[in-house]
Amino acid sequence: MTLPTQSFDIIVIGAGIAGATAAAHLSADRRVALIEAEDSAGYHTTGRSAALWVQNYGPHDVRELSRLSRAFFENPPTGFAATPLMRQRPVLMLATAAQLSDLDSALAEGIGLRRISVADAARLIPALRPGYAAGAAMEDDAFDMDVAAIHQGFLRKLRADGGVLALRSRAGGITRAGSVWNVETTTGAVFQAPVVINAAGAWGDEVAVLAGAQPLGLTPRRRTAAIIDPTPHDVEHWPMVLDVQENWYARPEARTRLMVSPADATDSYPHDVQPEELDIALGIDRMQQALDIKVRRVEHRWAGLRTFTPDGSLAFGWDSVIEGFFWSVGQGGYGIQTSPAAGQLVADLVLGRDPGEAAAIREAVDPGRFSCRPERRR
User: Fold this and answer.
1) What is the pLDDT, as a whole number, of residue 70?
2) Which end of the chain has fewer CB within 10 Å, C or N?
């Protein structure tokens, strides 16, 4: 059954954090449709994120957007969420004797990192095995983020501004007639607008092909995590702890539990990714080499896809060939912590506004860097 065509100013494809923030920042000035293939927004990656805001994480463009996003998390708009969006959670970085040069590099290049003694690290993490760490550093200014509250806050703003969230609406055809895009969905609905924003995450290249655009070469990568009971340790106020080469990390979860990950980044493909038993075992083994914690059973396990561009930086900008087609992809593992500033940057670029401080990274995130295609058209 073909449903009536619905007309908008902008169509955003993908209702994870990238699409939700772009749609929310645009909805004050334009009529926006946010379309999502799944039954719920953020099902694949956003909904599986255990996010921590860390300044010293990711390439330069990511760090800039993280910095610019901090004020939003500290003081969100009135009514954005019923609970605080952040809770302080320092990050403790450990280095074995073989990793001390990596620790020195992290301290030299990082912002707000300070060296601490191994004895101080052991006081923060009483489970630290004697002899494991030869060096340690702290990032005191990191914090947990309430992913659900952040994501739902942006979706709430979209709806309050008159925007539309269409779930179970996978794009089956994306065609352009004159100056207008027609996005046909699997429900039979057709959405029409002059601008399409591709915020489809792991499916970003597939959406581009539907629209006749050249793929960027996005790579989805699997990240795995497990929840364990660390009894008898009281972990509620522990920092997040990781090794300096990011071969594993652990952080408190729900006050009495510990989330453990092997920090895997296994190349994958767009699908409903599931955890591999080997990855779960690797994460626990690496954690146990550092921390004296018995793991009697894994209480919960999951995996998510983090999608990267070929150079690891973000891709925000107009396609260099296809008119009216805008990219907002490549968030990798940084989508939540950069979301307020990233959504604002996308909106500014789409509407031709001055992006302020974020203008400094405009060239670094331009998707045109991946091709030698002709000059972009609007």
Assistant:
1) 96
2) N
Q: Which domains does the chain have, with CATH numbers?
A: 5-51+147-217+311-370 (3.50.50.60), 91-140+219-308 (3.30.9.10)
> If pLDDT is split at 50, 70 and 90, which confidence band does 46 have?
low
208-227 residue pLDDT tens: 999 999 999 999 999 999 99
Listed in sequence order, the residues at least 6 apart from 273 whose beta carbon sits closer than 8 Å to its beta carbon are 44, 220, 222, 303, 304, 305
Q: What pLDDT shows up at residue 2?
A: 58
> What is the phi-psi region of residue 337: left when phi exceeds 0, alpha when psi lies from -120 to 50, beta otherwise?
alpha
Query: Does the pLDDT at position 378 exceed 70?
Result: no
Please spell the DSSP secondary structure of 23-92, one letter per residue.
Answer: HHHHTTTS-EEEE-SSSSTTTTTGGG---EE-SS-SSHHHHHHHHHHHHHHHSPPTTS-SS-SEEE--EE
56 within 8 A of 105, measured Cβ to Cβ? no
Bridge-based pairing state of the strands 325-329 and 195-198: parallel
Asked if residues 194 and 19 have their Cβ atoms less than 8 Å apart, the reply is: no
DSSP string computed for 287-312: HHHHB------EEEEEEEEEEE-TTS
| CB contact at 8 A, 275 and 303 | yes
Tens of pLDDT, residue by residue over 129-167, are: 999 999 999 999 999 999 999 999 999 999 999 999 999
Contact 40, 31 (CB under 8 A): no
Decide: helix, strand or coil at residue 141.
coil
Q: What 3-state class would DSSP assign to 374?
A: coil
| For residues 321-331, average pLDDT | 97
Residues 127, 250 contacting (CB under 8 angstroms): no
Residue 232 preceded by cis peptide, ω within 30: yes
Round to whole Å and give the CA distance between 285 and 306. 23
Contact 283, 260 (CB under 8 A): yes
Structure-token match 């970085």, residue found: 93
Q: Are 67 and 112 in contact (CB under 8 A)?
A: no
What DSSP string describes 238-262? Answer: PPEEEETT-S-EEEEETTTEEEEE-
pLDDT exceeds 90 at position 55: no
